[in-house]
Specification:
Layout lengths: L2 H31 L13 H10 L6 H15 L13 H36 L4 H15 L2 H15 L14 H27 L2 H8 L4 H13 L1 H15 L3 H6 L5 H10 L3 H29 L7
Helix pairs in contact: 1-13, 4-5, 4-7, 4-10, 4-12, 4-13, 5-7, 6-7, 7-9, 7-10, 10-13, 12-13
Length: 309
């Protein structure tokens, strides 16, 4: 690793830390600015009981003091504190339990999206303006345009209700099949379109024509030169996409009752569970920032001509 690359990575890490701090700060003050509080929904709670709960969790202290304490706990101990609603459980434990399911859901969906997207995109580029190219473009356009809650509901009605082939609840292994495909369709369509447009651009380059003139075989041109260089825009998209999918789609997890991090996040917002909202938001931000950094580094591996500055 040369000096420029190392300096670039260190600069990106510094920007990542700054980004995460901004996310923590904005989320903290915005959540505390919302009228009401985490204990307002408690049934028949007295003012004395509410004051006692606020004192127990430090919510009676000045807002800026709460912020400094929270920030210190994260930096020194990576501790997001206890959940205000799920009594006796720490935020990290809740996030960890949700991540076990969301990670499986996301990794499978991302793998399906990547493999099928690259294959369909390459086929569409190599068969440009032919029937199979038009079919792939129409289908991918439909998948990109259709919101995930529409696609998820359609698959749920078709496979779980009408045909009764798959379970509707995502709490079991078989129940993850429908949410996996629901999450993979839109990214697959985007990767297909990115691969097709990038591959068409690469196939028109001078070095491809030179390789053909020298008698290089078609498969070697496609897999050794064209496809490799065409994957650079896909890598740009894949990093943030993987972070988004792994954390779990909020809507998809709600539709299929998947006990993942997305479902816990929605519940925490509804219940005004400040520590769980903060912890989940920070974890999501870290994943997205890390995936963006890894994407930039992968540029250099795929194409050594790219310089990181």
């Amino acid at each position: 690793m040369n000096t420029k690359t190392l300096a670039y990575i260190l600069k990106r890490i510094g920007l990542a830390i700054l980004t995460i701090w901004v996310v923590i700060t904005v989320t903290f003050f915005v959540m505390h600015a919302v009228p009401g509080g985490p204990f307002m929904s408690e049934k028949a709670i007295s003012e004395e009981a509410q004051a006692a709960l606020e004192a127990k969790y430090g919510l009676d202290k000045p807002l800026f003091q709460q912020y400094l304490t929270y920030l210190k706990d994260i930096v020194t101990k990576f501790d997001f504190g206890p959940s205000l609603k799920q009594r006796g459980r720490d935020v990290l434990d809740i996030i960890g339990d949700g991540m076990k399911t969301s990670a499986k859901l996301g990794v499978f969906a991302a793998a399906i999206a990547l493999v099928t997207g690259v294959v369909f995109g390459a086929v569409a580029a190599l068969r440009r303006n032919k029937f199979i190219d038009r079919v792939i473009m129409v289908v991918t356009t439909a998948f990109v345009s259709m919101p995930s809650f529409i696609m998820g509901t359609f698959l749920l009605i078709l496979f779980a209700v009408t045909w009764a082939i798959l379970p509707a609840n995502g709490a079991t292994a078989a129940g993850l099949i429908l949410p996996v495909f629901t999450l993979s369709l839109s990214p697959m369509a985007n990767i297909t379109r990115l691969t097709r447009s990038s591959m068409l651009d690469v196939l028109g380059q001078d070095y491809i024509r030179t390789a053909k003139a020298k008698g290089v075989s078609g498969p070697k041109i496609i897999f050794g030169h064209a496809l490799k260089n065409a994957l650079i825009p896909v890598i740009t998209y894949f990093g943030p996409m993987l972070a988004y999918i792994v954390t779990g789609s909020l809507v998809v997890e709600q539709i299929f009752a998947v006990p993942g991090i997305g479902r816990a996040y929605v519940t925490s917002i509804t219940n005004r569970d400040y520590p769980l909202i903060m912890g989940t938001t920070i974890i999501l931000a870290i994943l997205i920032v890390v995936m963006n950094l890894l994407s930039d580094i992968m540029y250099k591996i795929v194409d050594p001509r790219i310089t990181l500055e």
